[in-house]
Amino acid sequence: MASSSSSWFALLLFVGLACTAANSNVLSAGYYEKTCPNVQGVVRSVMAHRVAGEPRMAPAVLRLFFHDCFVNGCDGSVLLDATPFSASEKDAEPNDSLTGFTVIDEIKSILEHDCPATVSCADVLALASRDAVALLGGPTWAVPLGRKDSRAAADPESTKNALPSPKDNLEELITMFAKHGLDASDMTALSGAHTVGMAKCESYRDRVYGIDNEHYIDPSFADARRQTCPLQEGPSDGKAPFDSQTPMRFDNAYYRDLTAHRGLLSSDQALYGGHGGMQDHLVEMYSTDGEAFARDFANAMVKMGNIPPPMGMPVEVRLHCSKVNY
Length: 326
Prior knowledge:
This protein is mainly α. It folds into 2 domains: 25-163 and 307-316, Peroxidase, domain 1 (Orthogonal Bundle); 181-302, Peroxidase, domain 2, CATH 1.10.420.10. It has 14 helices and 5 strands. The chain has helices at residues 4-18, 39-53, 57-69, 101-114, 121-135, 156-162, 170-178, 184-190, 201-208, 219-226, 253-259, 266-269, 278-288, 290-305, and strands spanning 20-21, 149-150, 198-200, 239-241, 314-316. A 3-stranded antiparallel beta sheet has the order 1-5-2. It has a two-stranded antiparallel ribbon with strand order 3-4. α2 (39-53) runs antiparallel to α4, α3 crosses α5 (121-135) and α13 (278-288) crosses α14. It is globular, with a radius of gyration of 21 Å. Residues 1-18 have low confidence and may be disordered. Belongs to the peroxidase family. Ascorbate peroxidase subfamily. Residues 26-325 form the Plant heme peroxidase family profile domain. Its EC number is 1.11.1.7. Residues 1-22 form the signal peptide.
């Protein structure tokens, strides 16, 4: 039997070897077939249990995946806590309301027991976001796997600049998504993630009070939203669902809201102006054809999930999602 010191040295050697450079792996759906064959079952089981007890965890996990991939690629960096030596993406203004971290930690803990130092936190997040959509009645898809976790998070300013703003116009949104290899059609389909979840009052205040006069808003909708979002900021500021019809069902109601000028955020309504053109036609199609939306959303999620970290970034398989290996 090996001594404890020898075992500890072996672990350190393994962790050291696990630190590689980004872009060295090709993603594939069968990446863990031999090394951790039950990974998808573990993720699905934990997600089903947690969402059954707290449904809001589904949109929360889905949002985590978006906010991870848009900042230095899908590398699990959004999960890292701050340290005395490094900042955390969690502390950036767009991320201060993120939740769902405990769900990812629970999945990772089980996988570390079953398949030590094998499944990356970035892959856990990719799988969990897919299952979050399916659990709310949306589509499912084969998730390419083999991502690695970054050993550092982006600073708060870089994080903020990398994420879309609730006040972005159509041109700004298209430019933002294009930086990640996603075209206007991908952007329109991915925006349908707002068929579930909530937004803070500060994100939609300008729209419902007419301060954003670029996009027409249905007056009755604006009045309803003002009831929980006072003009003056204060402790009573409330959240509102993106989709007031079926806020916890992953369907195409978001697009029906847009065609009725009932988009909650300015960046939502920016997708549809009612003036014709390719962009409006795409929103109109999704508003009447839920299957087309589900298909295009699934394809766009795979495409977004393939956004790699910057070339040469140090990566690893983290043993704990909130901190790097030492």
